[in-house]
Predict the structure of Homogentisate 1,2-dioxygenase.
Amino acid sequence: MPYYRVVGEVPRKRHVQFRRPDGGLYAEELMGEEGFSSDSSLLYHRYLPTAIVKAEAVTPTTEARLEPNLPLSPRHFRTQELAGAGDLVTGRMLLAGNGDVRLSYATSDAPSELYRNSMGDECVYVQRGRVRFESTYGAIEAGEGDYVVIPTGTIHRWVPDGQVNVLAIEAGGHIRPPRRYLSQYGQFLEHAPYCERDLRAPSEPLVAEGEEVPVLVRTRGGLSRLVYRNHPFDVVGWDGCLYPFAFNIDDFEPIVKKTHAPPPVHQTFEGPGFVVCSFCPRPLDFHPESVPIPYNHHNVDSDEFMFYVGGDYSARKGSGIDVGSVSLHPAGFTHGPQPGAVEAVIDAVSRGVTVTSEKAVMIDTFRPLDLGQGALSCEDPGYAWTWSR
């Protein structure tokens, strides 16, 4: 994270005695990235965060197998057809992935158990509904359009208010704002499409009581369930630059040009081997002879995974794409507007249309994406041929 926060009670100096009202010591925990040479936070627990009383291996309840995208083909998946099972953690249906990132869809109205992903950061996009994200850092109320970014190793749970639909982006490392948006000291620069004021983090401690509390833990070796002697939500205060936060897609400020701008202007986050972009309602290109729609393009180094979450997709009319759809355009395939879309948009502009209402979340990966069983179970088999109609 680019800036420092303090929540709850912390001592004036780091690594000094900090005593409870009864005279005992709070237990200090340092959460630090990259061998403690990058962002970190100090958390102060009422009980030892190291005290576990039981550990057991866990067999995954959902299929995590991936298959190569063969024969090479653009794909269309209808997440609207996926039936929810489990919660927003155990009920994730794998759509696509590689060694850098896993992309899953989940829909549930059930609270999740406590969970810790020790493989990498997560970015969970809330497509529909409202949910309370609870963690050792505190709580965040999240709703439609929110990205919730969760640092590696954060113990947390999801508590939906009714049914919630999410896209879960699970990284093999850390997810951060793009470097080009930040000063050398970490402040958002004036040209950035969002800033510190747009980020929402926990504002007060979240303390829960309990003994022998299970936590599901994902590591590179698989899944385990650790039973903690005391409830992990026992932090009375923390400070630092590492913490979960939420950012709403409607707070992204689109960058526009006279003629059509390429996807990097939509970049929102970066991770190891991938980027996350937000396509938001914005003014159409305003050169008098512009073609205000994406040109045919071939991103030779990336696979493009696009999750359509709202608005009208002028470039995709006739393809079957709708809200809730996912398109996958792999490297090795040139893609662009559907036949007739360019002419239709130019005609709309001539009749006074000046804005586009599309809203989508895009993940570009720099290694090929393989296909998960969740995606294959809701694929539109005719999508690849829609450019030939």
